[in-house]
Amino acid sequence: MKINIASVFVDDQAKALRFYTEVLGFRKKTDVPMGGDVSWLTVVSAEQPDGTELLLEPSGHRAVGPFKEALVADGIPWTSFAVDDVHAEFRRLSQLGVRFVQEPAAMGPVTTAVLDDTCGNLIQIAQMH
Questions:
Q1: Taking the alpha carbons of 40, 43, 48, 52 in that order, is the dihedral positive or negative?
Q2: What is the mean pLDDT of the chain?
């Protein structure tokens, strides 16, 4: 068994697609219209185009808003993405206007930073040592 798809709830799929592809560097993998302005919309790592897909899932369910707000209020990232160099990614993304709520910090065998994905989530980037 392996992970095929993971999801992140987003407030606006078009905005999320722009952020996750143009800023973070993922590639669009799947875009299947599901009616209205909602799609089954996934992105993948440019480094692993056949790897795990990230579903940019609409935040429409009534439980999602309070859940996301509570995570953000407590500074808890929704998920974590691996990077080769947290400090370099922090600089690159900061130059692109990404807002970080936690600058790079060493935490034992990992260095992490936490960013705002502009779609209602905090996302951690992590580098293993």
A1: negative
A2: 97
